[in-house]
Glyoxylase, beta-lactamase superfamily II (Haloechinothrix alba), 343 residues
Amino acid sequence: MSIPYAQPRDWTEPGAHPVVPGVHRIPIGLPFEGPAAVNCYVLEGPHGLVLIDPGWATSRTQATVDQGLRQLGYRLADVAVCVATHHHWDHYTQAYRWRTTLGTALYTGYGERHSIGEFGLERSRFPHHIDLLVRCGAPDLARQVANQAFAEYERSVPYGPPDGWLHPGERIPVDGGELEVVGAPGHTRGHITLRHTARDVLFSGDHILPRITPSLGFEWAPEPQPLRSFLESLTAALAVPDTVLLPAHGPVLDSTHARVRELLQHHEERLELVCRQIRRGGGTAYDVARAVPWTRHECALDELELDHQMLAVTETGAHLEVLRLRGAVDVRVEDAVRRYIPG
């Protein structure tokens, strides 16, 4: 595949950048440490503009999108529909605010109803991860997560259900064709991607990222087997023609398939690494997470921030569950703790 329009060297460079005919990308800064920006994609639709993943609800986000649209000859009032690939605030909340201020419609995947419906500021930031961490053999970490409060910038974000839910196979009309909704669970259980077959592009959200592997089950109501779902949905992406990859974070890539193969290979290597630890004597997901390196900097578990420690342990548990389903390991449950042994 090839990208018709040259992209800036720095993918976060402000402005509305053409990607393929009829599609522009507006990078939007984020109010937290992590990805430097989120890519909002702009398309023309039959009743106005269609925006995909228009960022975290802040005045800065609105100003950035407004400036980008003006560069293209539009105004915020021209936005008719917003589609969020998933419910995370850096993809969803600005669109949710515009429902009131601009009268735009907001849609996201049907599977996101679980986490959106269970959200509440009066609860822990990750209520279901507490029991999950206990099952992973990390009770001290579970207590820390249970006591973790929402940051002020998180408390002020507008949030609630969308105007409608999208199901795999549905199509959203845009100029020059349609966006086909594709189920892509893993990062969240209702994550969707959008295929624009007439333009040979895939809007991948956080499902397929060009530089990092997305976290798994990072939501208020995670599914039981997020890694299995992620691997299955990645494999399914190889069964359709290749496209240009338009991710939510990071630069545009000229091949979705190439990046999918890299992600599948990464997780196969990670599964083997986890399995080797079990062969050395077995243990809990927490035991394994403490024994293996994390991030490209090969950090120890306790060198990570609390949220990342939580994700490292629960993702190790997800890898162990895939190994169990494959018959490579077995599990024994003792006092609610899952301990794995060679299969």
About this structure: Residues 256-279 form the longest helix (24 residues).
